[in-house]
Specification:
Blueprint lengths: L2 H12 L3 E3 L11 E3 L1 H20 L4 E4 L7 H7 L1 H4 L1 E6 L6 E3 H14 L3 H15 L4 H11 L16 E4 L3 E3 L9 E3 L5 H6 L1 H8 L5 E10 L14 E11 L4 H18 L7 E5 L9 E9 L2 E12 L1 H10 L5 E2 L6 E2 L2 E8 H12 E6 L2 E6 L10 E5 L6 H12 L5 E3 L5 H11 L3 E5 L1 H6 L1 E6 L5 E5 L3 H14 L2
Parallel strand pairs: 3-9, 19-20, 19-21
Antiparallel strand pairs: 1-2, 4-5, 4-6, 7-8, 9-10, 10-16, 11-12, 12-13, 13-16, 14-15, 17-18, 21-22, 22-23
Helix pairs in contact: 2-12, 3-11, 5-6, 5-7, 6-7
Protein backbone atom coordinates (compact mmCIF):
# COMPACT_ATOMS: atom_id res chain seq x y z
CA UNK A 1 0.00 0.00 0.00
CA UNK A 2 1.05 3.60 -0.54
CA UNK A 3 2.18 5.91 2.27
CA UNK A 4 -1.14 7.77 2.13
CA UNK A 5 -3.03 4.48 2.41
CA UNK A 6 -0.98 3.57 5.48
CA UNK A 7 -1.73 6.95 7.05
CA UNK A 8 -5.46 6.53 6.44
CA UNK A 9 -5.45 3.02 7.93
CA UNK A 10 -3.57 4.32 10.99
CA UNK A 11 -5.90 7.29 11.46
CA UNK A 12 -8.95 5.04 10.99
CA UNK A 13 -7.96 2.98 14.01
CA UNK A 14 -6.68 5.89 16.11
CA UNK A 15 -9.84 7.96 15.70
CA UNK A 16 -12.41 5.18 15.76
CA UNK A 17 -13.37 4.92 12.10
CA UNK A 18 -12.48 1.31 11.31
CA UNK A 19 -10.90 -1.54 13.31
CA UNK A 20 -9.55 -4.92 12.30
CA UNK A 21 -12.18 -7.52 13.14
CA UNK A 22 -11.33 -9.88 16.05
CA UNK A 23 -8.11 -7.93 16.60
CA UNK A 24 -7.47 -9.32 20.10
CA UNK A 25 -7.22 -12.79 18.50
CA UNK A 26 -4.87 -11.65 15.79
CA UNK A 27 -7.62 -10.52 13.46
CA UNK A 28 -9.48 -12.23 10.63
CA UNK A 29 -8.25 -11.47 7.14
CA UNK A 30 -10.32 -9.05 5.05
CA UNK A 31 -12.94 -8.39 7.73
CA UNK A 32 -13.37 -5.08 9.52
CA UNK A 33 -15.51 -3.45 12.19
CA UNK A 34 -16.76 0.13 12.02
CA UNK A 35 -16.04 2.15 15.17
CA UNK A 36 -18.00 5.08 16.67
CA UNK A 37 -16.90 7.52 13.95
CA UNK A 38 -17.06 4.98 11.12
CA UNK A 39 -20.58 3.83 11.87
CA UNK A 40 -21.79 7.43 11.72
CA UNK A 41 -20.19 7.91 8.30
CA UNK A 42 -21.75 4.64 7.18
CA UNK A 43 -25.20 5.75 8.30
CA UNK A 44 -24.73 9.15 6.65
CA UNK A 45 -23.68 7.68 3.30
CA UNK A 46 -26.58 5.22 3.29
CA UNK A 47 -29.03 7.99 4.16
CA UNK A 48 -27.63 10.23 1.39
CA UNK A 49 -27.98 7.37 -1.08
CA UNK A 50 -31.51 6.54 0.09
CA UNK A 51 -32.54 10.19 -0.12
CA UNK A 52 -31.20 10.41 -3.68
CA UNK A 53 -32.54 7.10 -4.96
CA UNK A 54 -35.87 6.71 -3.13
CA UNK A 55 -37.11 9.96 -1.61
CA UNK A 56 -36.29 12.14 -4.63
CA UNK A 57 -37.97 9.82 -7.12
CA UNK A 58 -41.69 9.15 -7.30
CA UNK A 59 -41.15 5.86 -9.14
CA UNK A 60 -38.52 4.20 -6.92
CA UNK A 61 -39.32 2.31 -3.71
CA UNK A 62 -37.26 0.39 -1.19
CA UNK A 63 -36.90 -3.27 -0.30
CA UNK A 64 -34.98 -5.32 2.26
CA UNK A 65 -34.60 -9.01 1.44
CA UNK A 66 -33.13 -11.96 3.32
CA UNK A 67 -29.48 -13.02 3.10
CA UNK A 68 -30.57 -16.65 2.65
CA UNK A 69 -32.57 -17.55 -0.44
CA UNK A 70 -33.77 -20.73 -2.11
CA UNK A 71 -30.67 -22.32 -3.72
CA UNK A 72 -32.39 -22.49 -7.12
CA UNK A 73 -32.28 -18.69 -7.19
CA UNK A 74 -28.51 -18.89 -7.68
CA UNK A 75 -28.80 -21.60 -10.30
CA UNK A 76 -31.24 -19.46 -12.26
CA UNK A 77 -29.09 -16.32 -11.92
CA UNK A 78 -26.03 -18.11 -13.27
CA UNK A 79 -24.01 -17.71 -10.08
CA UNK A 80 -23.62 -21.46 -9.49
CA UNK A 81 -22.11 -22.00 -12.94
CA UNK A 82 -20.59 -18.64 -13.89
CA UNK A 83 -19.74 -16.60 -10.78
CA UNK A 84 -16.02 -17.27 -11.03
CA UNK A 85 -12.71 -15.43 -11.05
CA UNK A 86 -9.54 -16.74 -12.75
CA UNK A 87 -7.14 -17.84 -9.98
CA UNK A 88 -3.40 -18.50 -10.12
CA UNK A 89 -0.95 -19.44 -7.35
CA UNK A 90 2.69 -18.56 -6.84
CA UNK A 91 4.36 -21.95 -6.22
CA UNK A 92 7.17 -20.30 -4.28
CA UNK A 93 5.03 -18.62 -1.62
CA UNK A 94 1.63 -20.33 -2.14
CA UNK A 95 0.15 -16.84 -2.41
CA UNK A 96 -2.99 -16.65 -4.54
CA UNK A 97 -3.82 -13.98 -7.13
CA UNK A 98 -6.40 -13.09 -9.73
CA UNK A 99 -4.80 -13.75 -13.08
CA UNK A 100 -6.42 -10.76 -14.80
CA UNK A 101 -5.30 -8.44 -11.98
CA UNK A 102 -1.69 -9.54 -12.46
CA UNK A 103 -1.87 -8.71 -16.15
CA UNK A 104 -3.55 -5.36 -15.53
CA UNK A 105 -0.81 -4.52 -13.04
CA UNK A 106 1.80 -5.41 -15.67
CA UNK A 107 0.06 -3.10 -18.18
CA UNK A 108 0.07 -0.26 -15.64
CA UNK A 109 3.81 -0.70 -15.04
CA UNK A 110 4.49 -0.60 -18.77
CA UNK A 111 2.57 2.66 -19.08
CA UNK A 112 4.45 4.11 -16.11
CA UNK A 113 7.70 3.38 -17.97
CA UNK A 114 6.37 5.15 -21.06
CA UNK A 115 5.91 1.93 -23.04
CA UNK A 116 2.37 2.76 -24.16
CA UNK A 117 2.54 0.88 -27.46
CA UNK A 118 3.65 -2.29 -25.71
CA UNK A 119 0.97 -1.77 -23.04
CA UNK A 120 -1.69 -1.45 -25.73
CA UNK A 121 -0.59 -4.73 -27.28
CA UNK A 122 -0.77 -6.56 -23.95
CA UNK A 123 -4.15 -4.97 -23.24
CA UNK A 124 -5.51 -6.23 -26.57
CA UNK A 125 -4.28 -9.73 -25.72
CA UNK A 126 -5.90 -9.51 -22.28
CA UNK A 127 -9.27 -8.58 -23.80
CA UNK A 128 -8.95 -11.46 -26.27
CA UNK A 129 -8.01 -13.88 -23.48
CA UNK A 130 -10.96 -12.86 -21.29
CA UNK A 131 -13.32 -13.57 -24.19
CA UNK A 132 -11.58 -16.79 -25.27
CA UNK A 133 -13.43 -20.10 -24.92
CA UNK A 134 -10.35 -21.41 -23.11
CA UNK A 135 -9.92 -18.31 -20.99
CA UNK A 136 -7.80 -19.93 -18.28
CA UNK A 137 -5.26 -21.27 -20.78
CA UNK A 138 -5.13 -17.96 -22.64
CA UNK A 139 -4.52 -16.00 -19.42
CA UNK A 140 -1.79 -18.44 -18.34
CA UNK A 141 -0.07 -18.16 -21.71
CA UNK A 142 -0.12 -14.37 -21.49
CA UNK A 143 1.33 -14.36 -17.96
CA UNK A 144 4.16 -16.72 -18.86
CA UNK A 145 4.98 -15.11 -22.20
CA UNK A 146 5.14 -11.67 -20.61
CA UNK A 147 7.18 -13.14 -17.73
CA UNK A 148 4.94 -11.47 -15.18
CA UNK A 149 6.43 -12.04 -11.75
CA UNK A 150 4.77 -12.59 -8.39
CA UNK A 151 4.43 -9.37 -6.36
CA UNK A 152 5.53 -11.26 -3.23
CA UNK A 153 8.34 -13.57 -4.35
CA UNK A 154 9.48 -11.84 -7.52
CA UNK A 155 9.47 -15.24 -9.22
CA UNK A 156 7.70 -16.42 -12.34
CA UNK A 157 6.80 -19.78 -10.86
CA UNK A 158 3.09 -20.15 -11.48
CA UNK A 159 0.44 -22.86 -11.29
CA UNK A 160 -2.13 -23.22 -14.05
CA UNK A 161 -4.99 -20.72 -14.08
CA UNK A 162 -8.29 -22.17 -12.86
CA UNK A 163 -11.77 -20.88 -12.19
CA UNK A 164 -12.72 -20.16 -8.58
CA UNK A 165 -16.39 -19.81 -7.54
CA UNK A 166 -16.86 -16.86 -5.21
CA UNK A 167 -19.98 -17.96 -3.31
CA UNK A 168 -19.92 -19.06 0.32
CA UNK A 169 -22.09 -22.10 1.00
CA UNK A 170 -23.54 -23.45 4.22
CA UNK A 171 -26.21 -25.93 5.34
CA UNK A 172 -29.82 -25.24 6.22
CA UNK A 173 -31.04 -26.90 9.40
CA UNK A 174 -29.36 -29.65 11.42
CA UNK A 175 -28.70 -32.09 8.58
CA UNK A 176 -25.37 -32.09 6.74
CA UNK A 177 -27.01 -33.59 3.65
CA UNK A 178 -25.86 -31.93 0.42
CA UNK A 179 -29.49 -31.31 -0.52
CA UNK A 180 -29.67 -28.78 2.33
CA UNK A 181 -26.84 -26.66 0.90
CA UNK A 182 -27.66 -22.97 0.54
CA UNK A 183 -25.56 -19.90 -0.16
CA UNK A 184 -24.80 -16.59 1.47
CA UNK A 185 -25.98 -14.14 -1.16
CA UNK A 186 -23.20 -12.68 -3.33
CA UNK A 187 -25.42 -9.73 -4.33
CA UNK A 188 -28.70 -8.16 -3.22
CA UNK A 189 -30.10 -7.88 -6.77
CA UNK A 190 -31.62 -11.37 -6.96
CA UNK A 191 -33.80 -10.65 -3.93
CA UNK A 192 -35.20 -7.73 -5.90
CA UNK A 193 -35.89 -9.79 -9.02
CA UNK A 194 -37.77 -12.58 -7.25
CA UNK A 195 -39.92 -9.90 -5.57
CA UNK A 196 -40.59 -8.06 -8.84
CA UNK A 197 -44.34 -8.66 -8.86
CA UNK A 198 -44.74 -8.40 -5.08
CA UNK A 199 -43.27 -4.90 -5.07
CA UNK A 200 -44.87 -3.76 -8.33
CA UNK A 201 -48.37 -4.77 -7.25
CA UNK A 202 -48.27 -3.56 -3.66
CA UNK A 203 -46.61 -0.23 -4.54
CA UNK A 204 -48.85 0.19 -7.63
CA UNK A 205 -45.93 0.93 -9.92
CA UNK A 206 -45.85 1.26 -13.68
CA UNK A 207 -42.79 0.97 -15.90
CA UNK A 208 -40.35 2.63 -15.73
CA UNK A 209 -39.81 2.11 -12.01
CA UNK A 210 -37.02 1.17 -9.65
CA UNK A 211 -36.47 -0.92 -6.53
CA UNK A 212 -33.66 0.13 -4.19
CA UNK A 213 -32.00 -2.05 -1.59
CA UNK A 214 -29.14 -1.76 0.90
CA UNK A 215 -27.77 -4.90 2.50
CA UNK A 216 -24.89 -7.23 3.15
CA UNK A 217 -23.40 -9.53 0.54
CA UNK A 218 -20.64 -12.13 0.78
CA UNK A 219 -17.96 -13.18 -1.68
CA UNK A 220 -15.07 -15.55 -1.12
CA UNK A 221 -12.61 -13.26 -2.89
CA UNK A 222 -9.37 -14.75 -4.18
CA UNK A 223 -7.42 -11.69 -3.10
CA UNK A 224 -9.06 -9.67 -0.35
CA UNK A 225 -6.61 -6.89 0.43
CA UNK A 226 -6.29 -3.10 0.27
CA UNK A 227 -8.03 -2.40 3.59
CA UNK A 228 -11.83 -2.18 3.10
CA UNK A 229 -11.64 -1.96 -0.70
CA UNK A 230 -12.04 -5.71 -1.19
CA UNK A 231 -13.53 -7.70 1.67
CA UNK A 232 -15.44 -10.94 1.92
CA UNK A 233 -18.35 -9.41 3.83
CA UNK A 234 -19.56 -6.05 2.58
CA UNK A 235 -22.53 -3.76 2.10
CA UNK A 236 -24.12 -3.09 -1.28
CA UNK A 237 -26.40 -0.23 -2.29
CA UNK A 238 -28.18 -1.39 -5.43
CA UNK A 239 -31.10 -0.08 -7.46
CA UNK A 240 -32.79 -2.11 -10.21
CA UNK A 241 -34.58 0.11 -12.72
CA UNK A 242 -37.17 -1.73 -14.83
CA UNK A 243 -37.79 -0.37 -18.32
CA UNK A 244 -39.43 -1.37 -21.59
CA UNK A 245 -37.17 -3.28 -23.99
CA UNK A 246 -35.43 -0.86 -26.31
CA UNK A 247 -35.30 1.99 -23.80
CA UNK A 248 -32.45 0.60 -21.69
CA UNK A 249 -29.68 2.70 -23.27
CA UNK A 250 -31.51 5.95 -22.56
CA UNK A 251 -32.05 4.87 -18.95
CA UNK A 252 -28.44 3.77 -18.60
CA UNK A 253 -27.13 7.16 -19.73
CA UNK A 254 -29.52 8.93 -17.36
CA UNK A 255 -28.27 6.90 -14.40
CA UNK A 256 -24.63 7.29 -15.39
CA UNK A 257 -25.07 11.05 -15.23
CA UNK A 258 -27.00 11.00 -11.98
CA UNK A 259 -24.67 8.62 -10.20
CA UNK A 260 -21.61 10.66 -11.19
CA UNK A 261 -23.27 13.82 -9.86
CA UNK A 262 -24.11 12.15 -6.55
CA UNK A 263 -20.45 11.40 -5.88
CA UNK A 264 -19.47 14.93 -6.85
CA UNK A 265 -22.11 16.32 -4.50
CA UNK A 266 -20.55 14.32 -1.66
CA UNK A 267 -17.25 16.14 -2.14
CA UNK A 268 -15.28 13.91 -4.51
CA UNK A 269 -13.26 15.94 -7.00
CA UNK A 270 -14.18 15.44 -10.67
CA UNK A 271 -10.58 14.71 -11.68
CA UNK A 272 -10.64 11.71 -9.34
CA UNK A 273 -13.54 10.05 -11.19
CA UNK A 274 -13.77 8.45 -14.64
CA UNK A 275 -15.93 5.98 -16.55
CA UNK A 276 -14.58 2.65 -17.76
CA UNK A 277 -16.58 0.49 -20.15
CA UNK A 278 -16.40 -3.27 -19.62
CA UNK A 279 -14.53 -5.13 -22.32
CA UNK A 280 -15.70 -8.53 -21.09
CA UNK A 281 -19.40 -8.51 -20.28
CA UNK A 282 -21.06 -10.64 -17.65
CA UNK A 283 -23.46 -13.25 -18.97
CA UNK A 284 -26.48 -11.08 -18.17
CA UNK A 285 -25.33 -7.73 -19.62
CA UNK A 286 -25.37 -6.01 -22.99
CA UNK A 287 -23.54 -2.85 -21.79
CA UNK A 288 -21.71 -2.20 -18.54
CA UNK A 289 -19.78 0.78 -17.16
CA UNK A 290 -17.73 1.14 -14.00
CA UNK A 291 -17.35 4.50 -12.32
CA UNK A 292 -13.75 4.43 -11.13
CA UNK A 293 -12.04 6.47 -8.40
CA UNK A 294 -8.32 7.14 -8.27
CA UNK A 295 -7.38 5.57 -4.93
CA UNK A 296 -3.80 5.99 -3.69
CA UNK A 297 -2.97 2.64 -5.33
CA UNK A 298 -4.54 3.52 -8.69
CA UNK A 299 -7.88 3.61 -10.51
CA UNK A 300 -10.40 1.12 -9.11
CA UNK A 301 -14.12 0.47 -9.41
CA UNK A 302 -16.33 2.57 -7.16
CA UNK A 303 -19.76 1.83 -8.63
CA UNK A 304 -21.23 0.01 -11.60
CA UNK A 305 -24.04 1.01 -13.95
CA UNK A 306 -25.11 -1.96 -16.05
CA UNK A 307 -27.77 -2.87 -18.56
CA UNK A 308 -28.73 -6.37 -17.44
CA UNK A 309 -31.25 -6.93 -20.27
CA UNK A 310 -34.14 -9.25 -19.39
CA UNK A 311 -31.82 -12.09 -18.40
CA UNK A 312 -32.66 -12.27 -14.69
CA UNK A 313 -36.43 -12.09 -14.93
CA UNK A 314 -36.46 -14.56 -17.82
CA UNK A 315 -34.26 -16.97 -15.90
CA UNK A 316 -36.47 -16.83 -12.80
CA UNK A 317 -39.56 -17.34 -14.98
CA UNK A 318 -37.95 -20.44 -16.47
CA UNK A 319 -36.76 -21.97 -13.20
CA UNK A 320 -39.76 -21.06 -11.02
CA UNK A 321 -42.52 -21.59 -13.57
CA UNK A 322 -44.01 -18.23 -12.51
CA UNK A 323 -44.64 -15.56 -15.13
CA UNK A 324 -42.46 -12.47 -14.86
CA UNK A 325 -44.24 -10.54 -17.60
CA UNK A 326 -45.42 -6.97 -17.27
CA UNK A 327 -48.66 -5.84 -18.93
CA UNK A 328 -48.67 -2.26 -20.14
CA UNK A 329 -51.91 -0.72 -18.78
CA UNK A 330 -52.39 1.48 -21.86
CA UNK A 331 -51.42 -0.79 -24.77
CA UNK A 332 -52.04 -4.15 -23.04
CA UNK A 333 -48.70 -5.26 -24.48
CA UNK A 334 -47.00 -8.07 -22.57
CA UNK A 335 -43.24 -8.14 -22.15
CA UNK A 336 -40.50 -9.04 -19.73
CA UNK A 337 -38.85 -5.77 -18.65
CA UNK A 338 -35.21 -4.92 -19.18
CA UNK A 339 -33.20 -3.81 -16.16
CA UNK A 340 -30.66 -1.03 -15.69
CA UNK A 341 -28.77 -1.52 -12.45
CA UNK A 342 -26.78 0.91 -10.34
CA UNK A 343 -24.60 -1.10 -7.95
CA UNK A 344 -22.40 0.64 -5.40
CA UNK A 345 -20.18 -0.88 -2.74
CA UNK A 346 -20.74 1.06 0.49
CA UNK A 347 -17.32 0.17 1.90
CA UNK A 348 -15.55 1.27 -1.30
CA UNK A 349 -17.42 4.58 -1.21
CA UNK A 350 -16.39 5.12 2.41
CA UNK A 351 -12.77 4.35 1.53
CA UNK A 352 -12.92 6.84 -1.35
CA UNK A 353 -14.38 9.48 0.98
CA UNK A 354 -11.63 8.82 3.54
CA UNK A 355 -8.98 9.17 0.83
CA UNK A 356 -10.60 12.30 -0.57
CA UNK A 357 -10.96 13.96 2.84
CA UNK A 358 -7.46 13.26 4.16
CA UNK A 359 -5.32 16.41 4.42
CA UNK A 360 -1.99 17.30 5.96
CA UNK A 361 -0.89 20.93 6.29
CA UNK A 362 1.42 23.10 8.34
CA UNK A 363 -0.07 25.65 10.72
CA UNK A 364 2.26 27.90 12.72
CA UNK A 365 5.10 25.45 12.27
CA UNK A 366 3.04 22.42 13.37
CA UNK A 367 1.48 19.67 11.29
CA UNK A 368 -2.30 19.63 11.18
CA UNK A 369 -4.12 16.51 10.00
CA UNK A 370 -7.75 16.93 9.09
CA UNK A 371 -10.51 15.01 7.38
CA UNK A 372 -12.23 17.51 5.10
CA UNK A 373 -15.55 15.66 4.80
CA UNK A 374 -18.56 17.30 3.26
CA UNK A 375 -20.78 18.16 6.27
CA UNK A 376 -23.45 15.66 5.18
CA UNK A 377 -20.84 12.89 5.46
CA UNK A 378 -19.02 14.05 8.61
CA UNK A 379 -19.67 11.78 11.63
CA UNK A 380 -19.94 14.73 14.04
CA UNK A 381 -21.44 17.98 12.82
CA UNK A 382 -20.72 20.23 15.81
CA UNK A 383 -18.37 19.98 18.80
CA UNK A 384 -19.14 22.05 21.90
CA UNK A 385 -16.03 22.95 23.90
CA UNK A 386 -15.88 24.90 27.18
CA UNK A 387 -12.54 26.72 27.39
CA UNK A 388 -12.00 25.50 30.96
CA UNK A 389 -13.79 23.12 33.33
CA UNK A 390 -14.88 25.82 35.79
CA UNK A 391 -16.57 29.20 36.22
CA UNK A 392 -19.85 27.84 34.90
CA UNK A 393 -18.55 27.26 31.37
CA UNK A 394 -19.36 23.51 31.31
CA UNK A 395 -22.94 24.22 32.32
CA UNK A 396 -23.38 26.77 29.51
CA UNK A 397 -21.73 24.38 27.03
CA UNK A 398 -24.04 21.53 28.03
CA UNK A 399 -27.07 23.78 27.58
CA UNK A 400 -25.91 24.72 24.07
CA UNK A 401 -25.31 21.06 23.25
CA UNK A 402 -28.83 20.17 24.40
CA UNK A 403 -30.28 22.96 22.23
CA UNK A 404 -28.50 21.61 19.14
CA UNK A 405 -29.30 17.90 19.56
CA UNK A 406 -32.49 18.04 17.54
CA UNK A 407 -30.71 19.34 14.43
CA UNK A 408 -27.12 18.06 14.65
CA UNK A 409 -25.05 15.12 15.80
CA UNK A 410 -23.02 16.86 18.52
CA UNK A 411 -20.01 16.05 20.67
CA UNK A 412 -18.98 17.54 24.03
CA UNK A 413 -15.30 17.68 25.01
CA UNK A 414 -13.75 19.45 28.00
CA UNK A 415 -10.47 17.53 28.32
CA UNK A 416 -7.13 19.05 27.35
CA UNK A 417 -5.94 22.34 25.91
CA UNK A 418 -8.37 23.96 23.48
CA UNK A 419 -5.86 23.72 20.62
CA UNK A 420 -5.50 19.99 21.17
CA UNK A 421 -9.26 19.57 21.19
CA UNK A 422 -9.52 21.46 17.91
CA UNK A 423 -6.98 19.06 16.40
CA UNK A 424 -8.94 16.04 17.59
CA UNK A 425 -12.07 17.41 15.97
CA UNK A 426 -10.14 18.19 12.76
CA UNK A 427 -8.96 14.58 12.59
CA UNK A 428 -12.50 13.19 12.68
CA UNK A 429 -13.74 15.81 10.22
CA UNK A 430 -16.04 17.91 12.45
CA UNK A 431 -17.03 20.97 10.37
CA UNK A 432 -17.76 23.32 13.30
CA UNK A 433 -16.58 23.82 16.86
CA UNK A 434 -18.49 26.05 19.29
CA UNK A 435 -16.31 27.35 22.15
CA UNK A 436 -17.65 28.74 25.42
CA UNK A 437 -15.15 31.14 27.02
CA UNK A 438 -14.92 34.04 29.46
CA UNK A 439 -16.75 36.43 27.14
CA UNK A 440 -19.68 34.03 27.03
CA UNK A 441 -20.23 34.59 30.74
CA UNK A 442 -20.21 38.38 30.36
CA UNK A 443 -21.90 39.09 27.03
CA UNK A 444 -23.57 35.79 26.09
CA UNK A 445 -21.54 35.22 22.90
CA UNK A 446 -19.59 32.14 21.79
CA UNK A 447 -17.11 31.46 19.00
CA UNK A 448 -17.87 29.27 16.01
CA UNK A 449 -14.74 27.86 14.38
CA UNK A 450 -14.83 26.45 10.85
CA UNK A 451 -12.70 23.36 10.25
CA UNK A 452 -11.16 24.07 6.86
CA UNK A 453 -10.37 27.79 7.15
CA UNK A 454 -9.98 27.75 10.97
CA UNK A 455 -11.73 31.14 10.94
CA UNK A 456 -13.70 32.07 14.06
CA UNK A 457 -16.72 34.32 14.46
CA UNK A 458 -18.58 35.39 17.57
CA UNK A 459 -22.34 34.98 17.74
CA UNK A 460 -25.01 35.10 20.42
CA UNK A 461 -25.26 31.72 22.11
CA UNK A 462 -28.99 31.59 21.40
CA UNK A 463 -28.30 32.15 17.68
CA UNK A 464 -25.85 29.24 17.24
CA UNK A 465 -28.37 26.79 15.71
CA UNK A 466 -29.58 29.33 13.15
CA UNK A 467 -26.05 30.37 12.17
CA UNK A 468 -24.95 26.75 11.74
CA UNK A 469 -28.00 25.86 9.65
CA UNK A 470 -27.30 28.84 7.37
CA UNK A 471 -23.64 27.88 7.05
CA UNK A 472 -24.60 24.32 6.10
CA UNK A 473 -27.02 25.65 3.48
CA UNK A 474 -24.25 27.77 2.02
CA UNK A 475 -21.94 24.74 2.00
CA UNK A 476 -24.56 22.69 0.15
CA UNK A 477 -24.98 25.48 -2.37
CA UNK A 478 -21.23 25.75 -2.85
CA UNK A 479 -21.11 29.41 -1.80
Amino acid sequence: MSAQFDQIVSLSKRRGFIFQSSEIYGGLAATYDYGPMGVEIKRNVVQCWWDEMVYRNDNIVGLDTAVFMHPTVWKASGHVDAFNDPMIDDKTTNMRYRADDLIEGHIARLRKKGKDERADQVHERLVAALNDENMTDALHDLITEEEIRSPDSGQCNWTEVRQFNLMFDTRLGASSDSENKIYLRPETAQGTYVNFHNVRETARLQIPFGIAQVGKAFRNEIVARQFIFRTREFHQMEMQYFVAPGSQMEALEMWRERRMQWHLDNGIRPEKLRWHEHEKLAHYADVAFDLQYEYPNGWQELEGVHSRTDFDLKAHQKYSGKKMEYVDPQTRERFIPYVVETAAGLDRIILALLCEAYREEEVNGEKRTLMAFHPRIAPIKVAILPLVKKDGMPEVAHAIKDSLKADFNTFYDEKGAIGRRYRRMDEVGTPFCVTVDGETLTDGTVTIRERDSMEQIRVEKDAVAGVLIEKLRSWEAGT
